[in-house]
Q: What sequence folds into this?
């Protein structure tokens, strides 16, 4: 009986011990699982934060790079045209030292001015080409063979009408048509002639910039002698101006020599081989050349 009780007690103690061990093991496993879960959550949160921060950094970097690219693009001047400045308020004036102003400009502004100059040159060349084409067309229209025949037919005496000859009526009709065409093209011809004169005048002004300062003298000469051309009037006025300059130069040289004599310097008089007046028969450009030679000789002395 006592042995059975002892065995029962041992069995109970063993069962209790196993139960305690299993409970402890379960608790340990549970704690380990919870700890692992907590660690996993922490890792995931940290990774999420890193990814989020890294993503924000990329977005910021991309935005900054885009902004820098836009700024660089703004710095580079585009190939603008003169029409693009129509909406820009710009002041006008004179007396500006453009060399100093351009030298003080930044490189972008200089490039911008270069683009504008290139656009202006291109437009000027296009206009010149179009004007030449138009002049060629008008010249072919007003000076061509067809227009010559029209003028000849219109300038003839009226064709007599013969009631028995139908060709006389046809010839008279053609003559009237030619006269109407001549009347229609005459303003065109006059306009073309005026434009040609203006173009030649502009070319002459470009070749002789001092014409503007002598326009009054040139105009007076043209009024006095209608047979003179613009070139002849210019060279005559130029020769007269050079004569005055030569006279003033001679006076200045004489005054200088007199002052040098006063201080005791010996001045050679020399002999003048040039006449005081131009040879007879010189006209226009020849007279101008003679005065230029005289002026050069005086300056050489």
A:
């Amino acid at each position: 009986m006592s042995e059975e009780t002892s065995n029962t007690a041992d069995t109970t103690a063993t069962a209790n011990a196993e139960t305690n061990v299993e409970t402890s093991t379960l608790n340990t496993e549970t704690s380990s699982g919870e700890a692992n879960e907590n660690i996993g959550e922490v890792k995931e949160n940290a990774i999420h934060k890193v990814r989020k921060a890294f993503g924000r950094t990329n977005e910021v970097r991309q935005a900054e790079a885009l902004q820098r690219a836009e700024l660089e693009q703004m710095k580079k001047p585009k190939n603008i045209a003169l029409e693009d400045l129509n909406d820009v308020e710009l002041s006008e004036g004179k007396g500006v030292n453009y060399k100093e102003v351009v030298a003080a400009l930044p490189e972008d502004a200089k490039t911008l001015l270069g683009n504008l100059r290139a656009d202006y040159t291109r437009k000027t060349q296009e206009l010149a080409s179009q004007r030449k084409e138009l002049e060629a067309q008008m010249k072919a229209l007003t000076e061509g063979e067809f227009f010559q025949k029209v003028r000849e037919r219109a300038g003839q005496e009226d064709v007599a009408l013969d009631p028995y000859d139908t060709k006389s009526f046809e010839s008279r009709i053609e003559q009237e048509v030619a006269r109407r065409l001549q009347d229609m093209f005459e303003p065109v011809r006059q306009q073309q002639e005026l434009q040609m004169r203006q173009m030649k005048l502009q070319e002459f002004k470009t070749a002789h910039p001092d014409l503007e300062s002598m326009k009054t003298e040139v105009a007076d000469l043209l009024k006095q002698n209608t047979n003179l051309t613009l070139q002849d009037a210019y060279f005559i006025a130029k020769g007269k101006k050079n004569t005055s300059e030569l006279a003033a130069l001679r006076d200045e040289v004489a005054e200088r020599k007199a002052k040098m004599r006063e201080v005791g310097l010996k001045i050679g008089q020399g002999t003048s081989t040039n006449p005081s007046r131009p040879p007879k028969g010189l006209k226009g450009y020849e007279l101008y050349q003679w005065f230029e030679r005289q002026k050069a000789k005086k300056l050489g002395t």
